[in-house]
Amino acid sequence: MAMAYEQGELFAKASEEEITETEFYLERYRDMILFIEDFNGFQSEMAQVAIDGEAARRLSADELHADKTANAVILTEKQKWMYERYRVYTFMIFRAYNLIPHQGIKKVIKARFIEGHNRSNTILFTYASGSTVDRYIERGTKMIANSLVQMGFFDEILKRN
Fold first, then answer.
1. CB 148 within 8 A of CB 93
2. CA 61 to CA 50: how far, in whole Å?
3. Under DSSP, is residue 129 helix (H, G, I), strand (E, B) or coil?
4. Distance between CA atoms of 69 and 75, rounded to whole angstroms?
């Protein structure tokens, strides 16, 4: 996934795999933002629910014995890890979005992914035809993917493993 630069190459171009991953993260952008906002507002409550609630009873269906206290700590640490990863991912995606020079494409990407509207509502909010919205989403996704390659986004994703 990491971009290999050739001699004389000034601007990185995303591979098909990186474009597909960009689509994946754009589709989840709004969910990541909502998780970040929820975590910022309710971190202590989330930790308490992990301790008191059923979520920590068993982290996996394969567990025969549940250590609720240890599982609550693991669950809380997982939430903190997700929060940190989501902050990095959303920051980089938003930076790449801001680099789109074409205002029409930027408007469609904002409605569809940044604000999280479905395709139909994106068409309504942008006053564009369905084919134009589809074309702008495709072009905008490629622009974002190219910017993400230059920013090292896909190398950052590899850190998660």
1. yes
2. 17
3. coil
4. 10
Among positive and negative, which fits the CA dihedral 133, 36, 21, 95? positive
Is 144:22 a contact under the CB 8 Å cutoff?
yes
Report the C-alpha gap between 44 and 60 in whole angstroms. Answer: 23
Per-residue pLDDT in tens (0 to 9) along the chain, 161 residues? 455 555 445 677 999 999 999 999 999 999 999 999 998 887 666 656 555 554 445 545 555 445 556 666 777 788 889 999 999 999 999 999 999 999 999 999 999 999 999 999 999 999 999 999 999 999 999 999 999 999 999 988 876 55
**CA torsion, points 17, 22, 28, 29, in degrees to nearest 10?**
160
Q: How far apart, in Å, are the Cα atoms of 29 and each of 34, 45, 93, 114?
A: 9, 24, 8, 7
Structure tokens at 101: 């020079």
From the list 135, 104, 103, the residue with the least C-alpha distance to 119 is 135
pTM value?
0.78
CA distance 143 to 65: 49
